[in-house]
């Protein structure tokens, strides 16, 4: 494991997007973990492109989720400044954040995923109900709508288009919600997510950010699957990670149908690192402490930069 003693690390957190509060919580956790390993850590609240990091920073640990942090923008800035950073490079970040581009790559690489269509220029969905409407470039289930009733279609499409004109519409898949963390070439233990209402949306993911919403979710880790099915789901998650040519770490979200078929939903290249986040929970189940997970992310990221 990489030695972080006295290493100067800037933790980039916040960001201008819809996941700012989650990122700040992730950043606080990462900063504390890195300090416990002896690193010299500076927390940098990023609100836009004009952020600064201390002179002599040896690596920027990026935990800005979604817009600006996960979509290639901050990666381009850091590369222009010659500052090593964690996570995927520009190309991998741009691809994984884009749900439409991701779906097309899944099709090309034969990764199992739901039937879909792309709405442009004011077009209406043609898939049969129920279906899922998704804004292409948001994270943490922001801009995701499950539509079951024809009377709700117009309002849902109008609301979704407030994020941008192009939309992804997927056939609804009924199944158990699973997620698999990937660190390097290792698939971590599978987590099953169970919610009492709606789906694994923002409020259910981060109930501590909005207690009044009544959101909550139970995490079963490892998921109660037999050995053969566990290995198959992990292999599919790894195939999805590799289909996007990712090298460092990610979290792959899937659905598992009653027939035992996996359906990959999307990949997060900067997954949550908060007190209730899934990736750290899976890492602990694999015998990897939170601090060691942070160190491993740095180690893999620096190795990616050297290749």
Please provide a written account of the structure.
The chain has 307 residues and is of the alpha+beta class. The protein has three domains: 8-88, Rossmann fold (3-Layer(aba) Sandwich), CATH 3.40.50; 96-112 and 173-287, ATP-grasp fold, B domain (D-amino Acid Aminotransferase, Chain A, domain 1); 116-171, Dna Ligase, domain 1, CATH 3.30.1490. Helices cover 32% and strands 22% of the residues. It is built from nine helices and 13 strands. The protein has helices at 20-36, 73-81, 90-97, 99-108, 153-160, 202-205, 227-243, 278-285, 290-306; strands at residues 8-14, 40-46, 59-62, 116-119, 131-134, 144-147, 167-171, 176-183, 186-187, 191-195, 217-220, 249-256, 262-268. Strands 8, 9, 10, 11, 12 and 13 form a six-stranded antiparallel β-sheet that branches. A four-stranded antiparallel β-sheet has the order 4-7-5-6, sandwiched between helices. The protein has a three-stranded parallel β-sheet with strand order 2-1-3, with helices on one face. The longest helix has 17 residues, at 20-36. It is globular and about 60 Å long.
Give the topology, please.
Layout: E1 8-14, H1 20-36, E2 40-46, E3 59-62, H2 73-81, H3 90-97, H4 99-108, E4 116-119, E5 131-134, E6 144-147, H5 153-160, E7 167-171, E8 176-183, E9 186-187, E10 191-195, H6 202-205, E11 217-220, H7 227-243, E12 249-256, E13 262-268, H8 278-285, H9 290-306
Parallel strand pairs: 1-2, 1-3
Antiparallel strand pairs: 4-7, 5-6, 5-7, 8-9, 8-10, 8-12, 10-11, 12-13
Helix pairs in contact: 1-9
